[in-house]
C-alpha cells in the first residue's frame, strides 16, 4: 500500500493497521485517531517526510515487523509511546521523535538504528532497550527526557558521535549485563549520573562526559570500564566512581570534578597509564594507584 500527500485522521480505532502487508507513507499526516497511528504485525512500513501526531495511543506499534522513519518525518505528541517494538526492527534517519507522556522509543528484543535524529521531550526515557536489544545511535541527539536519556537492560548500544545531554536524570543507564561502546560521544549536563553501570560494561573512546550533576561515570556490581583518550570533567560529584568494579584507564583527562577525580573502593581494581588528573576536589582516593598518571611502561 502506498499513500502520498494524504491525511488520515479521526478514525475510531487505529489510523493504519497492517497484517502481513507493506506500507509506503510519504508527505502525509496521520493524526487524531482513537488508537495508534500505525499498527504493524508481520509487516513492513516506510515513513518518509510525514507527521504522526496526536493519536490516542502509540505513534508506531510494531510486532514482528520492520519500519524506516526518514527524511524529516516527525512523530510527536501521541498519547503513549512514540515507537513501540516487540521483536521488530526500526531505523530512524534524519527525523524527530518528540514530546510523549511515556518513553520515546521502546525496544523489546528489537535491533534499532537512530541516526542524525533528535529524541527529546519525553516524560519517560528517550530510548529504552530491553531483552537483548542492539541499538546504534549515530550523530543523534537525545535530550530533555524526564527519566533519562538511554536505558539499557540486558541490551547493547553503540553511541557514535551521539550527544546525550540535559536529561532530567541519568544520561545513560546500563543494568543486567548490558554493554556500551561510545566513540566520539558527548554525555553532558544530565541531572544525575552521566553514565551509570550496574553489572555491565562500557568502552568509552575519544568521548566527553562532563557537567553532570552527580558522578560523571558510576560503576557498581562488578562492572567493567575501558576508558581511552577521553575527558571526564566538571561533574558535580566524582569524575569516575568505582564500587566492586574494574577499570582500564589510558590517555584520558579527569579534570575539575567537585568530588574525587577517581574514586575506587577496596573491592575495585584499576590499571592504566598516561592519564591526567587535576583540579578535582581530590584527584584520587587512597586505593587508586598513582601509576595511572605515569607514562606508558616501555
SSE topology sketch:
Blueprint (H helix, E strand, L loop, with lengths): L1 E3 L2 E3 L6 E4 L2 E5 L2 E3 L6 E4 L2 E5 L2 E3 L6 E4 L2 E5 L3 E3 L6 E4 L2 E5 L2 E3 L6 E4 L3 E4 L2 E3 L4 E6 L3 E5 L2 E3 L4 E6 L2 E5 L2 E3 L4 E6 L3 E5 L2 E3 L6 E4 L2 E5 L2 E3 L6 E4 L3 E5 L2 E3 L6 E3 L3 E5 L2 E3 L4 E5 L4 E5 L2 E3 L3 E3 L14
Parallel strand pairs: 1-4, 2-5, 3-6, 4-7, 5-8, 6-9, 7-10, 8-11, 9-12, 10-13, 11-14, 12-15, 13-16, 14-17, 15-18, 16-19, 17-20, 18-21, 19-22, 20-23, 21-24, 22-25, 23-26, 24-27, 25-28, 26-29, 27-30, 28-31, 29-32, 30-33, 31-34, 32-35, 33-36, 34-37, 35-38, 36-39
Textual characterization of the structure:
This protein has 298 residues and is mainly β. The chain has a single domain, classed as Pectate Lyase C-like (3 Solenoid). Helix content is 0%, strand content 53%. Strands 1-4-7-10-13-16-19-22-25-28-31-34-37 form a 13-stranded parallel beta sheet, with no helix packed on it. It has a 13-stranded parallel beta sheet with strand order 2-5-8-11-14-17-20-23-26-29-32-35-38, with no helix packed on it. Strands 3-6-9-12-15-18-21-24-27-30-33-36-39 form a 13-stranded parallel beta sheet, with no helix packed on it. It is elongated. The model has no long low-confidence stretch (mean pLDDT 97).
Amino acid at each position: 500500500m502506498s499513500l502520498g500527500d494524504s491525511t488520515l485522521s479521526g478514525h475510531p480505532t487505529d489510523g493504519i493497521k497492517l497484517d502481513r502487508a507493506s506500507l509506503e507513507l510519504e508527505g502525509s499526516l496521520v493524526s487524531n485517531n482513537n488508537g495508534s497511528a500505525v499498527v504493524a504485525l508481520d509487516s513492513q512500513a516506510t515513513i518518509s517526510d510525514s507527521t504522526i501526531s496526536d493519536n490516542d495511543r502509540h505513534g508506531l506499534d510494531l510486532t514482528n515487523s520492520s519500519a524506516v522513519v526518514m527524511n524529516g518525518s516527525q512523530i510527536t505528541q501521541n498519547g503513549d509511546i512514540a515507537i513501540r517494538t516487540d521483536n521488530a526492527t526500526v531505523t530512524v534517519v534524519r527525523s524527530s521523535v518528540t514530546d510523549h507522556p511515556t518513553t520515546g522509543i521502546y525496544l523489546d528484543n528489537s535491533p534499532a538504528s537512530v541516526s542524525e535524529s533528535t529524541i527529546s521531550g519525553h516524560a519517560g526515557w528517550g530510548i529504552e532497550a530491553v531483552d537483548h536489544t542492539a541499538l546504534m545511535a549515530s550523530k543523534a541527539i537525545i535530550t530533555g527526557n524526564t527519566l533519562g536519556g538511554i536505558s539499557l537492560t540486558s541490551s547493547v548500544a553503540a553511541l557514535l558521535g551521539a550527544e546525550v545531554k540535559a536529561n532530567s536524570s541519568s544520561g545513560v543507564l546500563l543494568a543486567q549485563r548490558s554493554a556500551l561502546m561510545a566513540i566520539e560521544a558527548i554525555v553532558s549536563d544530565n541531572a544525575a549520573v552521566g553514565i551509570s553501570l550496574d553489572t555491565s560494561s562500557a568502552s568509552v573512546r575519544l568521548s566527553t562526559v562532563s557537567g553532570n550533576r552527580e558522578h560523571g561515570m558510576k560503576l557498581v556490581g562488578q562492572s567493567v570500564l575501558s576508558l581511552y583518550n577521553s575527558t571526564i570533567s566538571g561533574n558535580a560529584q566524582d569524575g569516575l566512581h568505582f564500587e566492586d568494579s574494574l577499570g582500564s584507564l589510558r590517555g584520558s583527562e579527569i579534570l575539575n570534578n567537585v568530588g574525587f577525580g577517581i574514586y575506587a573502593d577496596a573491592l575495585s581494581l584499576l590499571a592504566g597509564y598516561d592519564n591526567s588528573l587535576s583540579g578535582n576536589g581530590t584527584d584520587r582516593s587512597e586505593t587508586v594507584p598513582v601509576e595511572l598518571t605515569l607514562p606508558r611502561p616501555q
